[in-house]
Amino acid sequence: MSTLLQIVTFNQFQPETIIWFVVLALLLCVSAAVSGSETAFFSLSPGDLDKIKKGRSAADGTIMRLLGMQDYLLATILILNNLVNICIVLLANNVIDRLMTFAGGTAWEFIVKTVIVTFLLLLFGEIMPKIYGAYNPLRFARMVSRPLMGMKHIMRPFAWMLINSSSVINKRVAGKKGNLSIDELSKAIEITGDHSEEERQMLSGIVGFVNTEVTNIMKLRIDIVSLDVESDFDEVKRVIIESGFSRIPVWEENIDNIKGVLYVKDMLPFIAQGKDFSWQQYLRPAYFVPEHKKINDLMEEFQSEKVHIAIVVDEYGSTLGLVSLEDILEEIVGEITDESDVKAPTFYQKIDEYRYIFEGKTLLADVEKVLGFDEEYFADLEHGAETLAGLMLEIKCDFLKKGETVTARGVRLTVEALDGRRIDKVAVNTKDAEPCVAKNN
């Protein structure tokens, strides 16, 4: 106690100090009301707003008028709150000087005048009223609405300056603010920890949507279910039943010469017709797109042209593949299946730690992902090849026979099965793979 008296000397109490205490308490109440009103007005639920609209009290009408000019309401609250808080700090400093004197060079004056006063101001002038306003927004808004309307009129010139100056600043900041790149968005999604794996995959699909080309998602020409324009109607019905598709491309002479698309629904009225039925007259025009078209642009074209599939062609007009609306949607939301779909076999089979069997048509990006390799691990060897079979042909520079092996960066690729000249299955052995690869077992 004696040490405290050496640091602080209590002055003689003066009667007018009581007046300053009363003013200080009133200002603290005003600060609490203003702080709580900010939370209360902007926490009103649709149910609360409905009660206010139906209410006939003067407070309800005032609340609606205040909410109709939210910029001025918020500006008034901010100006008034800061003004009152500054007055509280200055007045508290004056009251403390009247009550006590601190020895020179001590930290107690800073603790009492700054730390304690700030704590009390935050607790009773900010935190507690905001909590009450958040839990009782309608009651609090009705309580402070009319005084707040009066202060809005008084503070209107200052509120106008604040609103206009902040709008100028916002416009300048918006003009200077650059757009986030796709890479930055992708990295942001990767480091975000509050999303499930499914949500993260969907967000990644949306981010990469604008940069994805149709060649990345199309069905390759060798996998397209199609019809020869010379086929009889019995053959058409057989293909329709076996494929389960609702739209089937039709070609003449070869698949590079697409004549149109057959819509299965157009054939339903003629299902009982014989093999000589002229189904060709019901062909609809095919929609062609270049191989490097972005899928977001194609989505817009699908919507405007009211089509669901497009034939992907190269610069010479040769058919590369087929892309559908479902393929585009699956790029965002993942695999879409319905009751007519059968479970497709996986494009690879893992034999042991180092050995795999892949389909020859598997994209190199998918192979690298399955094997745990770095992205574009085979980039220096592919020379434009996009599939595993294409990579083998690029390395060999010739057709391969069953059992023949090529090596890509230490990875042994062996022809497991052929379909004519096409490589159907490839055995992959990564035991001697070069470094810069992380196994993902």
Task: Explain what the structure shows.
The chain is an alpha+beta fold. It folds into 4 domains: 175 residues, no CATH class; 30 residues, no CATH class; 120 residues, CBS-domain (Roll); 82 residues, Uridine Diphospho-n-acetylenolpyruvylglucosamine Reductase, domain 3, CATH 3.30.465. It contains 17 helices and 14 strands. Strands 10-11-14-13-12 form a 5-stranded antiparallel β-sheet. Strand 13 and strand 14 form a beta hairpin. Helix 6 crosses helix 7 and helix 9 packs antiparallel against helix 10. The radius of gyration is 37 Å and the shape is elongated. The two termini are 70 Å apart. The C terminus is likely disordered.
Give a topology summary.
Elements: H1 2-7, E1 8-10, H2 16-41, H3 46-54, H4 58-67, H5 70-99, E2 100-102, H6 108-135, H7 137-154, H8 156-176, H9 182-191, H10 197-207, E3 219-220, E4 227-228, H11 233-243, E5 247-252, E6 254-263, H12 264-267, E7 288-290, H13 295-305, E8 309-313, E9 319-324, H14 325-333, E10 348-350, E11 355-359, H15 364-371, H16 379-382, H17 388-396, E12 405-408, E13 411-419, E14 422-429
Parallel strand pairs: 4-5, 7-8
Antiparallel strand pairs: 1-2, 3-9, 5-6, 8-9, 10-11, 11-14, 12-13, 13-14
Share of helix, binned:
40-55%
Total separate domains: 4
Quantity of strands, as a count: 14
Distance between the termini: 70 Å
Strand content: 15-25%
Dominant shape: elongated
Number of helices: 17
SSE class: alpha+beta
Main sheet characteristics? 5 strands, antiparallel
Cα-based radius of gyration, to the nearest Å: 37 Å
Average of the residue pLDDT scores: 79
What topology, given as strand order, has the largest sheet? 10-11-14-13-12
